[in-house]
Structures
1.
Amino acid sequence: MQNDNVKLKNIAIVGFLIFLGLVILYSAFWGPAKKFGDSFSSARTVTVSASGKVTAEPDLARVNFAVVTEGADPESVVEKNNQKANAAINFVKTKGIAKEDIETVQYQLSPRYEYDESARKSFLNGYTLNQRISLKIHDLKNNLKKLTEILAGLAPLGVNEIGSISFEVEEPEKYLSEARNQALARAGEKAEAMAKALGVRLGRIISWSEYGGRPPIPYYEGGLGGGGSIIQRATAPSIEPGTQEVITEVSVTYEIR
């Protein structure tokens, strides 16, 4: 009786060792081999490309203006320039432009030299101070009038240079997402049409990629008045922000069954 129990115990141990060996064999060879074999099942694929395009209205305007003052005395130049620049900044604040949307991007005092042909040498002929300020105007749809009023009101305050005006979309990603969804939908329709024409069925998506996806490019208006100088009049200019296109392209690879 005792010998029979020993035999059963040995058989159980051998059975367990065989089972354990099979598990190890599967993990080491059969599992990877199956995955490797599955990779060949996706060898029959079709890749399609499609694009999506969304038109967006700019909702942010950026304006750069400057006060440029010249003179023989640097202290006098600085005082006159600062008075004009401060007046311009206070003016745009009265138009509802928040402090965080006003930034001094340049403050440069430079000596001005001239060349004397007879003496064949350069001499100091004064100083030039260039103080440039950048503004951001949000919610452009409702604040376009504010933009034109600011442009018209800067010149009488001594602002003698306005750079280009740019129009942008503050949250381009939401438009890019819409364009992406549009492109993916078109890719799916194209793939279904190709599969039908070829007499096959589409399987799972193997891979997809996006390229060329780009937010709207800022649109620039040229400097007012030519040469960067604004027209010395208080008439409000006509400003048209236009529209901008958000474009993206996708490539999708499907399994063919």
2.
Amino acid sequence: MAVVVLLSDFGLEDPYVGLMHCVLAGISPSTRVVDFCHSVPAQDVEGGAWLLGSAVDYVPREAIVVGVVDPGVGSSRRSILVQTERVFLVGPDNGLFTKWFEFDPPRTAWLLENQEFHLDRVSPTFHGRDIFAPVAAWLAEGKEPKYFGPKIPLKSLERLDLPPMRIHSDKIEGQILYADSFGNLVTNIERGRVPPGAKGPVRVCGKELPLLRSFSDVSMGAVLAYFGSMGLLEIARRQGSAADLLAARRGNRVQLFLGEGS
């Protein structure tokens, strides 16, 4: 049974995700569809890229990952299919797959030019329904990628210039990527690149916070830093919103000190 994994900035209040499900079911009714995330902030290609990167180790091999965070829909930006060592990626060529490529590099890419595998009427504002979903469904049905369009050079694929995590002798510097629905602040500081034994504190928005294991390590309403389930440093308030309390926003600088003091 094929697996299609969906990520978008559509939210669940509108019919967009449901329409993609309908198209997938109409072409490939036996395919299992997994809604990974539809809460990417609107038009936030960079945020979507980080979220996709966090899923690489968990998405089943040979799955078809459809990413639709597409502020350039209807423009000259390309629609692409990419085969990596692990999966197929379907979506806009706008850098959305940048972080995925870091962990699972592309091997072959195709341009989705063959209209035979698009819906009969393609809206200039909804390629998720009219191009990406049908291509994913036909791929799940066993159609070979070569039928969707011509190969394109891997070096031509768009990649984002993602904000760097900088490692110094005494600290690591990064920034806030986004706030989740709980008000937890997700940063670009990756646990796998932090030297063993780093003790904090973490400085953000003029506050110094302890680096701890989990919410249960602080009292109700207190704020802490910890490495979350995606392997990224996060800032949270126990049973509250760290984003609201700290008046934090995307791009705010975050510093993780490697010793016991700052």
